[in-house]
Amino acid sequence: MEMNIALLPGDGIGPEVIQQAVKVVKAVGEKFGHKIHFEEAAVGATAIDQVGNPYPDATHEVCLRNDAVLFGAIGDPKYDNDPKAKIRPEQGLLEMRKKLGLFANVRPTFTFPSLLHKSPLKRDRIEGTDFVFLRELTGGIYFGEPRGRNEQGTKAFDTNVYSKEEISRLAIMGFEFAMKRRKLLTCVDKANVLATSRLWRETVQELAPNYPDVKVEYEFVDAVAMRLIQWPKAYDVLITENLFGDILTDEASVISGSMGLMPSASLGTDNKLFEPIHGSYPQATGKNIANPLATVLSAAMMFEYAFGLDAEAKVISDVVNLSLEKGVVTEDIADGGKAYGTSEVGDWLAENV
User: Fold this and answer.
1) What is the CA radius of gyration of the chain?
2) Per annotation, catalytic residue among 55, 79, 142, 281
């Protein structure tokens, strides 16, 4: 197969972890006889520095003409520490999702047998955890209008808006995921307070009869926030709106023991993007200490979701598990043993594909 992949390294450790994923993707391509072409483009603070725009038109064109996008991270302290900055790297991320139509963020949470002791939660609570969040990406409070401040600057406002169509397309994807898994779907909302959440619940209830084999549960977001810690194995597929999903998926990421381990996919009707869930981690930039495994596993999701190549995805997952078992890991999970550099881990993975 011939594959065309857009590379958006982004900011901070993004370029370093993307470089390791590319090594692994190339090794998989050689193993299975695929022709893989890469095209790189700027995004985030890097793009602001270059052209004054966190998601330039040229970058958008690169994304459109490739089969999939492999993305690193966005964010820079010089913008984080300036609340009055009119142009911010994160605006590029939101613009990219909107323009590419990436309406569903798929974030799996699972544990690694060799790293159960690294989780802040007790072993018996997390062993066997395997659930996936589907977070709506292009609606809600991040995009709703009006937004801003009053003339005096003493009040600020953001508007949370959802349409039935936006909710339906994510919910349908959630039902389809559930059918392929344990047939359990949880709708996460705040229907006791928010009108948008009541529309979420109503829409899911209307769709549920089309999937009679799927058990549907409805939980308030605050209850889910507690149960993710108390009993994460209770969940299978969870669907939720943009803001709730943003918060809950970061909470869920610590179950595995490190944010540097969890991959994600952002899916649309025509475009697909794959990225690690961690941020740009500016403190580690250029130090060759960042954990590349989440980005490498995001590449595994790319083979599966963008190209339908399950065997190639499994090869990547298997070699990542092998690296964990053998202790070929970066300092965040070295647990007192030898800590390998980012590039060393990437080299080892590629060599052992």
Assistant:
1) 20
2) 142
189 is catalytic: no
* Domains defined along the chain, listed by start: 1-102+269-353 (3.40.718.10), 120-256 (3.40.718.10)
Q: Which of 49, 57, 82, 222 is catalytic?
A: 222
**Local confidence band at 99 (pLDDT 50, 70, 90 cut-offs):** very high
Beta bridge mates, 131: 109
Is 222 labeled as catalytic in the residue annotation?
yes
What is d(CA 132, CA 99) in angstroms, rounded to the nearest whole number?
Answer: 25
Whether 232 contacts 109, CB under 8 Å: yes
Query: Could you give the count of Cα atoms lying within 13 Å of 39 in the half-sphere of its Cβ?
Result: 16
Catalytic choice (250, 305, 335, 347): 250
Q: Which of 25-29, 123-127, 168-172, 194-198 has the lowest mean pLDDT?
A: 123-127
142 is catalytic: yes
Residue in the block written with tokens 């298997």: 318
Q: Which of 246, 305, 335, 347 is catalytic?
A: 246
What is the distance in angstroms between the CA of the first residue and the CA of the last residue of the chain?
18
| Tokens 């690169």 found at | 62
d(C-alpha 324, C-alpha 126), whole Å: 18
Catalytic residue (choose from 11, 23, 189, 190): 190
List pLDDT tens digits, range 178-237.
Answer: 999 999 999 999 999 999 999 999 999 999 999 999 999 999 999 999 999 999 999 999
User: In which residue are the tokens 């995921």 written?
Assistant: 177
The helix (H) or strand (E) run that includes residue 274 is strand 272-276
For residue 270, what pLDDT is reported?
94
- Tell me which residue of 297, 309, 318, 346 sits closest to 2, measured CA to CA: 309
pTM: 0.91
Rounded Cα–Cα distance for residues 104 and 102 (Å): 6
